[in-house]
Amino acid sequence: MIALTPILDKAGESPLYWQLYAFIRGEIESGTIQAGTKLPAIRELSLHLKVSKNTVETAYQQLIAEGYAESRSRSGLFALAVEEPVAVPPRDPQDLTRETRSPAQRQTAATRTRENAAEVAFDFRYGDVEIRRFPMAVWKKCLLDALSEPNPRKTLDYGHPQGDEELRSEIASYLFQSRGVRCNAEQIVMSAGTQHSVGMLCQLLPLRDKLIAMEDPGYSGVRAALESHGCEIAPIPLDADGLQVDLLPGVRAAAVYVTPSHQFPLGMVLPIQRRNKLLQWATEHDGLIIEDDYDSEYRYVGQPIPSLKALDYRDRVIYLGTLSKSFLPAARLSYAVLPEPLAAPMREKLGMFSQSASPLIQQAMLRFMREGHFGRHVRKMKRLYQIKHRALLAALQRHMGDRVDIIGQKAGLHLLIDVKTGAGQADLIERALAAGIRVYSPAQQWFKPERCPPTYIMLGFGGLDEHRIDEAIRRLAAAWF
Asked: How far is residue 39 from each of residues 36, 46, 85, 336, measured CA to CA in Å?
């Protein structure tokens, strides 16, 4: 086992975990630490460097996430081979703070930033995912293998109305293992996005022109899809635990749309007592529950939360899932799991519709999942997003402290902050943009946007470089306070 003795600047602005990670990464890239070399144990290295075990663990997690090391069961952490030279080394966050431009140059740059969104240095857009670590070579191979499929109708024709049967079987197996959902391929319908799934349900169940209850606030994309099919929306307010289920009987809705495992956008988890009440409401009022489990893979605090569908013994829950967060938004792959009583009649009606998700992409995804790449990718991304999540929380605490309240920080790829400056959303967004940072208002998720607290800001972190999050928040704090 090797000994590591980097020079760590404990008084510097760069987090210690980042300094340690950058040192080990450099040693691996230079060949000083060769592939197959066992790295020191976390406890041993923390004692040697006189830093916390969390510091070492976070640095190691970053190395694993980027493919510089791997954890072997009961053996420890080992360096991996670097297949390609890195053209540009990671920049130290301290380097990003050094301003060499004149005041006039800075003013000109700020003006250009306001006028040209393409020059924004940091974009906290919700929905962005990590693209740089996507296993592109593996995905290309899966696409090529799909194109080489002996039966070209599987990839080049319109496809089965429900989607590829083998892919649906893989998804059924994945859902049972990851979310406790018991279903079979015949209950699953593939589609090109959650909004398309909702539109399909409106046409085929049918839900058109029916009254649908929704969380308020709740996902505006689904609300738009429902309204475009003539549905009337009954907004149900939230409290600290999520949807106020006791209000449902009074609205006489045919169905209710919920995000129980990670409420969007506020982030709370619907407790088991309310889940049971919600299922009871559906049974007693012959209602349906549309469960959108949009980012269940990414939970950072506590144990994984079982899906509502896993508790559904009366076949009242329609489960919606997507691969946009766990894989690629561009793949346009989502799915609906129908209760068995609804699946059979819906299959008959689906014959009138063409499958909206590309058969070629479905065949490639089948290979990606069947060969184990999807599971590895999700595990890798979960570690990486956890690092970004920790970096964002640490930066908010470091640079903003009690001047902001953090909302919904336990899971997902976004959080909300309540900014205590007295300024409204429009002013906060404009000041951030002048500093080269794009942040967003969550107001459109409210049934009546004016009811959104005027100091709420949404920060999506999935697409950000984890090494630059601290600098982004530092600049944001300087612009706001």
From this structure: 9, 12, 21, 44
Whole-structure pTM value? 0.75
Listed residue (467, 402, 462) closest to 13, CA to CA = 467
Cβ–Cβ under 8 Å, residues 125 and 433: no
The two structure tokens encoding residue 47: 């004692």
Among candidate residues 371, 390, 423, the one where a domain is terminated:
371
Residue 10 lies in a domain: no
Measured CA angle at 381 (ends 388, 218), to 5 deg:
75
pLDDT in tens, 273-320: 999 999 999 999 999 999 999 887 888 776 667 799 999 999 999 999
The SS3 assignment for 94 reads helix
Supply the range of the domain harboring residue 218. Answer: 151-371
Are residues 339 and 200 part of one domain? Answer: yes
The per-residue DSSP string of 416-439 comes to EEEE-SS--HHHHHHHHHHTTEE-
The DSSP symbol for 38 reads B
DSSP 264-291: TTT-----HHHHHHHHHHHHHTT-EEEE
For residue range 340-381, what is the model confidence (pLDDT) as tens digits? Answer: 999 988 888 888 888 899 999 999 999 999 999 999 999 999
Question: What pLDDT band is residue 83 in, cutting at 50, 70 and 90?
Answer: low
Which residues have CB under 8 Å from 421's CB, separation 6+?
A: 403, 428, 455, 480, 481
Closest listed residue to residue 133, CA positions, set 297, 468, 377, 325: 377
